[in-house]
Amino acid sequence: PHSPAQKLVFNRVNGKRPQVLPQQVSAPEECYTLAHEENVRFIYEAWQQVEQQLDGSRSGESACGPVQYIEKTPNPGLKNFVPIDLEEWWAQQFLAKIENCS
């Protein structure tokens, strides 16, 4: 008998729990070019630096650096907006590629 496949676990850096999304039964396979993956990696790494600088400025380590913009009167049209969790998205893509290969 086959033993069940080992489940991959991705630890969250920011401590947020992932949203449980229904899996699509027949999702078309997406192909990413090396340039696309490099662009995503660049943006991700740059954003990590911005978040580190923001955390440093909040704790008083730095007098200059990025400033977080917070709206005084939020747009009601964005009331239910949920930002994408890029780490979760990459994890889902990675697992989908593994499942498609097996």
Which descriptors apply to this entry?
single chain, mainly alpha, 102 residues, 2 helices
Query: Quick one: biggest sheet?
Result: none
Which range best describes the helical content: under 10%, 10-25%, 25-40%, 40-55%, 55-70% or over 70%?
A: 40-55%
SSE sequence, one letter per element: HH
Number of helices: 2
- N-to-C CA distance: 17 Å
Radius of gyration: 19 Å
- Backbone structural class: mainly alpha
Uncertain residue ranges: none
* Total number of strands: 0
What is the approximate shape?
extended
Mean pLDDT: 77
* Range of strand content: under 5%
Keywords: Cytoplasm, Nucleus
Protein name: MCRI2 protein
InterPro entries: MCRIP (IPR029428)
Family: Belongs to the MCRIP family.
Describe this structure in words.
The chain is mainly α. It is 40% helix and 0% strand. It is extended, with a radius of gyration of 19 Å. 0% of the residues are buried. The mean pLDDT is 77. Its main location: cytoplasm.
Concise overview:
The chain has two helices and no strands. With 102 residues, the chain is mainly α.
Annotate the secondary structure layout.
Layout: H1 34-58, H2 86-101
